[in-house]
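RECORD TYPE: inverse folding
INPUT: structure tokens
STRUCTURE:
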């Protein structure tokens, strides 16, 4: 079997071309194979009509995927090929698109022109905007209780909006500090043992200064190469510092204002501390590469699960993951990752679910987790990996997700405006050394304007 995968380029010309061509036929050769009729749709309560338990004839589906880490993409490509080969009722066509903002822009453009695919891949917190605006269908009627109960609670939480399930991911996420134990021990620095033993922010500042004195010019890498204004990394990576300090990105119950939360004294103090690290040169500057930790330029990396495969290979036997610093209210990490959702077009929901059910099989979830270092989305798949056991190298990630340390990004349709404002503010604070309070005041004004412009996002979305 030969499969063709289209990859739309990221330059301006290709983005413009993609926006006009997303509705045309996508390339993927389909091959026949054995049958697999166990779609698990029988006997479940239905709160929507996305699935009715039947697939008539052969259904052809298109799906979009962001062009993320190569291991993740190549694994999905093989899964599509193998799924198509194993059964005849559902034929899946895969297209990969640019990651981050170009991807989101293409999704919004395609939605406006009615050219969305049948199955959409999206970063978790964008689900609320997509669901509110009608881009997605709820999938409660598709997901049997056996699958729902096997999902991590964080996966269900991230995928739910207005009481309905709109998305499911095959892996969850986590942040931590990757450290070189040999380097820390040589410098006489204690190594935290878990979430209840995190360095305080003041202690962490001392750790960085000690490492600087030991000869490590820029001991901390926080991924500034990815921290350009508007990039999601700024929000996912560093909102936990605000939360840990006692601040927030928006009022967390009604989502009607960011004033007094994002610009609170607690938020200002946390980001001032981070700005101080940059001012003192303790942070790896935003160069053109992301190899500071792998090459040894930095010996601590503030980043996510996706770096585990590369970091563990770069420093075999000398790499550990410890919690993010405690800025006052306990260590906090982000959660939620890329999810799958059924778009509001004419796609057969049962056909889409047939493929999603395949991706959620324990061995397939484990396979993806091995490729990208992500936390398996199901309890059954977690059991397949020793990395998440009590003594496992990635145990911290599952400990954070199940122990109340992980927090979702704001679960509101206003999230695109919130993340854009915070991301731009963070970049100004770290790169331009802008005054922290005034910069956060500006972000608050931008968020509150968006809320007012959308009448605070009434539940109907209309």
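DESIGNED SEQUENCE:
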């Amino acid at each position: 079997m030969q499969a063709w995968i289209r990859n739309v380029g990221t330059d301006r010309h290709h983005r413009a071309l993609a926006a006009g061509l997303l509705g045309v036929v996508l390339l993927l050769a389909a091959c026949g194979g054995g049958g697999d009729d166990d779609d698990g749709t029988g006997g479940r309560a239905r709160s929507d009509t996305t699935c009715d338990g039947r697939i008539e004839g052969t259904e052809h589906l298109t799906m979009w995927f962001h062009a993320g880490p190569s291991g993740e993409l190549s694994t999905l490509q093989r899964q599509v090929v193998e799924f198509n080969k194993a059964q005849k009722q559902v034929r899946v066509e895969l297209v990969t698109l640019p990651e981050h903002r170009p991807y989101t822009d293409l999704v919004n453009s395609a939605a406006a022109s009615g050219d969305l695919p049948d199955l959409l891949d999206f970063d978790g917190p964008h689900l609320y905007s997509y669901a509110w605006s009608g881009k997605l269908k709820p999938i409660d009627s598709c997901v049997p209780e056996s699958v729902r109960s096997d999902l991590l609670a964080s996966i269900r939480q991230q995928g739910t909006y207005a009481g309905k399930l709109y998305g499911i991911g095959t892996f969850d996420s986590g942040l931590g500090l990757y450290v070189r134990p040999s380097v820390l021990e040589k410098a006489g620095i204690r190594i935290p043992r878990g979430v209840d033993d995190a360095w305080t922010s003041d202690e962490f500042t001392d750790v960085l200064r000690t490492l600087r004195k030991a000869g490590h010019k820029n001991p901390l890498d926080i991924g500034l190469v990815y921290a350009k204004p508007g990039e999601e990394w700024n929000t996912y990576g560093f909102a936990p510092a605000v939360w840990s300090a006692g601040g927030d990105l928006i009022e967390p119950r009604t989502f009607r204002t960011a004033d007094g939360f994002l610009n609170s004294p607690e938020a200002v103090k946390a980001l001032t501390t981070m700005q101080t690290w940059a001012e003192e040169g303790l942070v790896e500057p935003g160069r053109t590469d992301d190899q500071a930790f792998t090459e040894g330029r930095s010996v601590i990396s503030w980043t996510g699960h996706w770096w585990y495969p590369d970091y563990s290979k770069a420093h075999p036997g000398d790499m550990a993951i410890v919690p993010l610093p405690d800025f006052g209210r306990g260590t906090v990490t982000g959660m939620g990752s890329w999810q799958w959702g059924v778009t509001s077009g004419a796609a057969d929901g049962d056909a889409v679910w047939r493929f999603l059910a395949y991706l959620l099989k324990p061995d397939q979830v484990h396979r993806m987790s091995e490729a990208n270092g992500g936390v398996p989305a199901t309890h059954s798949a977690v059991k397949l990996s020793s990395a998440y056991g009590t003594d496992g190298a990635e145990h911290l990630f599952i400990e954070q997700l199940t122990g109340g340390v992980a927090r979702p990004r704001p679960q509101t349709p206003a999230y695109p405006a919130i993340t854009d404002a915070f991301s731009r503010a963070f970049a100004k604070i770290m790169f331009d050394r802008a005054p922290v309070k005034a910069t956060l005041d500006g972000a608050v004004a931008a968020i509150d304007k968006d809320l007012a412009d959308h009448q605070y996002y009434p539940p109907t979305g209309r």
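NOTES: The radius of gyration is 22 Å.
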